[in-house]
Automatic annotation (TrEMBL):
Superkingdom of source: Eukaryota
Entry-linked InterPro entries: TMEM164
UniProt keyword Manganese present: no
A family per Pfam: TMEM164
Residues that span the membrane, as ranges: 30-50, 71-88, 94-113, 125-142, 154-171, 183-201
Keywords for this protein: Membrane, Transmembrane, Transmembrane helix
Protein name according to UniProt: Transmembrane protein 164
Organism of derivation: Brachionus calyciflorus
Length: 310
């Protein structure tokens, strides 16, 4: 029924798919590896971080509207439309399932939609998994791109993907990153990416013999080619995604997050710490009721933050 979407895939090109690619790994190793990775990703990388950090986070829905947002949206839509056009013309639309295209779709949602409570989750996840665009630039797979401008489109597409999270941080509001020492969001993003590979890409790849994102056999530029290449990928991608995401945290907060927002957040945190410290002393000095009255008059809690009276 959907043969038109992959009938143009050339299996003679290395790493593109075909019988040799399907038989690259033994069925036993595929089943054991898949069972372990799926269980580990769901319990350790998704459920635990969700319960500890994600479910308790309340985002700030304020947003700075800028013309650059519409400009970036137009550019990303244009280059993504060109990529889809190439795949339609060559009957290889199935490659739209590769993670880079899925992340692009998520970025378009963030650029189009007004602020919502769930969008901060989407933003932080795509900020981590956008590391795939960096890998695509460092280790490009271009042997399947034969049409005019197709290779140039490849680099422009991945370049815009890397720019988008940083620009969104500039808008503030829901587009912010967690503290540098918090690894819960990073591991949860990795967990979702693992599940997407093993529960979505892997079944489709074996059913169509198309090597989606190198899930069946290594790409031509893979430095870890061999029977353990998927295990190696799970290990080095875990480290790379975490480091890449934290680099975005550092760069975004240093160069893109508005200074006024950072200063306001810092002052609020200091005031809250001061109020909590005074409250603790008040609790110890139970016989001195004036302490409680003084602490309450010095600051009023409004919407969960300390607001000083003029």
């Amino acid at each position: 029924m959907f043969e038109w979407s992959y009938s143009g895939v050339n299996f003679s090109l290395k790493g593109n798919g075909g019988p040799d690619c399907v038989n690259y790994l033994t069925p036993k190793s595929i089943m054991l590896e898949s069972l372990f990775i799926i269980t580990y990703a769901f319990i350790v990388e998704i459920y635990y971080p969700w319960m500890r950090s994600v479910s308790n986070y309340k985002p700030n829905l304020e947003l700075r509207e800028r013309f650059g947002r519409k400009l970036l949206l137009a550019g990303l839509c244009l280059i993504w439309g060109i990529e889809i056009g190439y795949k339609l013309s060559t009957r290889q639309l199935i490659f739209i399932l590769n993670p880079c295209h899925v992340v692009t779709f998520l970025q378009l949602i963030l650029l189009i939609s007004p602020p919502r409570n769930w969008m901060h989750i989407l933003f932080r996840i795509q900020t981590y998994v956008v590391s795939g665009a960096t890998i695509a630039i460092i280790f490009p797979v271009l042997n399947t791109r034969l049409l005019p401008f197709e290779k140039v489109s490849y680099y422009i597409h991945h370049g815009l993907m890397l720019i988008t999270p940083l620009y969104l941080m500039r808008l503030g509001g829901i587009y912010n990153m967690e503290p540098l020492i918090n690894l819960h969001w990073g591991f949860m993003s990795i967990g979702f990416m693992r599940l997407y590979h093993y529960l979505v890409l892997q079944p489709i790849s074996f059913a169509t013999e198309v090597n989606l994102n190198s899930i069946m056999c290594p790409a031509v530029s893979d430095p870890f080619e061999g029977p353990w290449y998927r295990i190696a990928a799970n290990m080095h991608q875990t480290l790379f995604i975490l480091l890449h995401g934290k680099m975005y945290c550092i760069i975004g907060k240093r160069f893109f997050v508005p200074r006024s927002n950072e200063k306001k957040k810092s002052e609020t945190n200091k005031d809250n710490e001061k109020w909590l410290s005074n409250s603790e002393r008040c609790y110890v000095q139970q016989d001195n009721s004036n302490c409680c009255i003084e602490n309450f008059n010095n600051g009023l809690l409004k919407n969960g933050h300390l607001v000083k009276e003029d």
